[in-house]
Amino acid sequence: MARIPAVEHSFAAHPLATGPGPSATEAGAVDADVVGAVLRTARAVLAERVAEASETDASFCGDLAGRVANFTLDGGKRMRPRLLWWAMRACGAADAGTTAAALRLGVALELIQSCALIHDDVMDRSRLRRGRPAVHIDLADRAGLAPDSEVGSAFGTSAAVLAGDLALVWADDTVAETPLPAPVRRRIRAIWRSMRTEMVAGQYLDLHGQATGGSSAARAIRTACLKSALYSVERPLAIGAALADADERTTAALRSAGRGAGIAFQLRDDLLGVFGDPARTGKPSGDDIREGKPTYLLAVARERAEAEGDQGALAVLGRAVGNADVTEAELADVREVFEATGARAHVERKAERLRDHAVRRLGEAVDADAHGGRQLLGLLHTVSGGRPAHDDLRGHDSPAAARVLTTAEGGQVR
Length: 414
What we know:
globular, two-stranded antiparallel ribbon, 2 domains, Farnesyl Diphosphate Synthase
């Protein structure tokens, strides 16, 4: 693999490859550049993993291990490590040991995200990721096989599954090898176990919905909760709280805030998948329709059309959803159905209510006037798609948002 020597060089050249520098132990230094500190720690961790892989087998290291390392380091907003970090800081932790542990656990979150994305692209048959060939496409191409041929497709997808598995193994190893006090370790291991299972459950519900032709609005929200809200927002916040040894009330409020923001994120992402400008989103508009994704937006439109007896709208959805060859004119008809049934406006309002719920619950968990609280508030606004506004903390709870969370959690708002 052509990039491996360069990546190994960057690992070796980086100060954290030989030992932790000030940014790995001083919370204030990390505050100034969380992403940079996470990346420095990631290079150190991945340098060890790639070196171990090279001792196992040169081909395995060059083709797979190095590619996983590159994939993890390239691109992404590092939102999960940032949520973890600022939750920990908002809860008051700042000592050197906790700071170093937070950065390592942030790397573990990035690795499990690599696993999810690599497997996602295989399941969705996506050819691109971050503007470059997806891992399964690249693996086939680097092996000298046509990615669309029978042999090339089988090799590429199978090897990508192994690459995702390796990322998950490295994530688990990173958590296991992070020095932590025994009570904190137990809390984090419990969160980590739940998060891994929830991620897989969400992926399965998504696949099941595509294969069976859709799901109810309640089922779609549950899928969004498992696939996006828990794994991407709530669990990173919970890990940060656990690192700071936060009390049960604080942790529960942070988790609820994360769940609301995470579901809001998924609802807005569903809207962008249909109505977004590809030049701004970086992905084709309408792919969710082509793939038959069981989104909340689609479920609401169907349920409303059925309730109104709108056979024309149902026929439009029936022709387009899950049709890989859907035309631009048919996609325009689907967008019109989403507008006419009120599904688009309903989803937009739902996302706003969830954002408001998240902001209120964050205000119950931490001091939003303090530096860590302000940073965390900004991240939750970014995640949920709202505009940062400190005064939002003075707003009221939304019963509608609570009902959405109740559905997502199977009957209990936390």
